[in-house]
Design a protein that fits this description.
CATH superfamily of the largest domain: Outer membrane lipoprotein wza domain like
Radius of gyration: 30 Å
Strand content: 15-25%
Shape: elongated
Largest sheet: 5 strands, mixed
Structural class: alpha+beta
Order of helices and strands: HEEEEHEEEHEEHE
Number of strands: 10
Helix content: 25-40%
């Protein structure tokens, strides 16, 4: 007579539970490996951002919500600080409506001189921008996992490090080395930027120039 040993029910259930847990662990490891592979591929998807010399003849372009100080020589009653309206125009004494958007301060001063020439002899006008917002084509936009995502006015010789200082650095969830710089001046060409190396590790070789109209996109870490 052959006696068949039977495994207790508890042992069978424990074995099945262990196998299920093992399958789950294998599945999780596979997902993590795939995520790491995709992340690595994404990091190499775009060429590194170039560090090119800034144009020496760059001039600030006036934008909506800027404040400009108009000084008319020997005519203090015609001088004063005025805000650029959302439509891009300003109003000053004797000149009720004149385009400021898209003009640099020197160009706006010459336009005001032409307008004022109808009322005073040989007007001499100086325009100084005292509150900067910049036109949309001149702003640097930072979106995603920055501490303070925002649009900031471009200034000459500005770099990614300057931008990160202004937005307060990266969040704890940022994957800075997968950041992308979209350059509008180059038909929205995309470049890879190593923000984690720059901000968290102090690798200054990761610092690159930015240009008017750039968009810096900072993704969230996968895990």
């Amino acid at each position: 007579m052959v006696v068949v040993a039977q495994m207790p029910v508890k042992q069978i259930l424990a074995k099945e539970k262990m196998m299920a847990q093992l399958k789950n662990m294998v599945h999780i490891l596979a997902v993590l490996m795939l995520s790491a592979l995709v992340s690595a591929c994404a990091g190499n998807r775009y060429p590194p951002a170039p560090s090119t010399a800034a144009s020496p003849d760059y001039r600030y372009v006036i934008g909506p919500l800027d404040t400009v100080n108009v000084v008319v020589w020997r005519n203090p009653e015609l001088s004063g600080a005025v805000a650029v309206r959302p439509d891009g125009r300003i109003s000053t004494p004797l000149v009720e409506d004149i385009q400021a958007l898209g003009r640099n301060p020197v160009e706006l001063a010459r336009d005001l001189e032409k307008a004022l020439a109808k009322y005073i002899r040989d007007p001499q006008v100086t325009v100084m921008v005292t509150n900067f917002a910049g036109s949309s084509s001149e702003q640097i936009r930072i979106v995603g996992e920055a501490a303070k995502p925002q649009a900031i006015p471009y200034r000459q010789n500005m770099t990614v490090l300057d931008v990160m200082i202004l937005v307060g650095g990266l969040t704890d969830f940022a994957d800075g080395n997968r950041a992308v710089l979209v350059r509008g001046a180059e038909q929205n060409k995309q470049y890879s930027v190593r923000l984690s190396d720059l901000v968290r590790r102090g690798d200054i070789s990761a610092n690159v120039d930015v240009r008017p109209g750039d968009v810096l996109i900072i993704p969230q870490s996968w895990f």
